[in-house]
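Deliverable D4.2, example record:
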Amino acid sequence: MQLAFGRELCAEQSVVQQALDHCTAANVTQMEQAMDCIYRKLSRGYRHDCQADGQVVDVDMSGWLCGKKEAFASTLRHRCGRQLGRVLATRYQEVVGDRLFPGNRQLNAGPQALMQAAQATLQLTPAQRARSLVRIAAGGGSVPNLNWLLEQGYQIQGKACSGKPAHQLAKGVQEWIPDPHLPRAASRVGHQPATAFVRLVRRLEVRCLQADGKWGVGVLVGSITDQEILRVAPRPAEEEAANHAVPRAPVALDGQRGVAPKPASRATKEAWG
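Output generated by the structure prediction step:
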């Protein structure tokens, strides 16, 4: 790799690691600023025209095994590891920013820090945030996290941390609209009361057929309009005519969500699931 970039010599990996081990907090901040400058100069995500077409960023976190002496290392299921959180400009397959977290930290405790870092990297103005859709996995879809994103001016699309409320809502569903391509169905719940969210949002009840033959249910929460959903995640014309496009499109939009790289080793998968 070094030769491909025109370099004849480079430091041995352990020497590079020793240099990094001696970095202070100020050095880390300097490296983050340098990485931001490189990203802004070379990336398509930074140059994206939000006015012409909204930006889409995805927030995710995945667990990785590491040694007990590594930073943020913590033990989970008799294995030591840490969490890698990332914000992705999925349309361009770019990593806007990433941060390490303790191994016992879940996504629910990380999205605000990740989005603050990404917001600084992208230098998003209030007008650009209003044209930016943040998609987030179920682990980060708590009401405080979603409200924070709404307060920052972002549009949101994410799986709510629902649990029992999702099952209660499912009992009241009168009609499920099936997906013709996958064993799942959706039904619009209505608008969440203003006491729960700081802005008006849409709730969509979704159920998927699990391996044991039972239906698993969840709730998708979104703030973008029906017209914007159909534009971002278009559906076939026949579905639109049948008035099924709007309930199905948010599910399809969530399915396009980019994710942080998952661990390849079997031991890591067993430790973090």
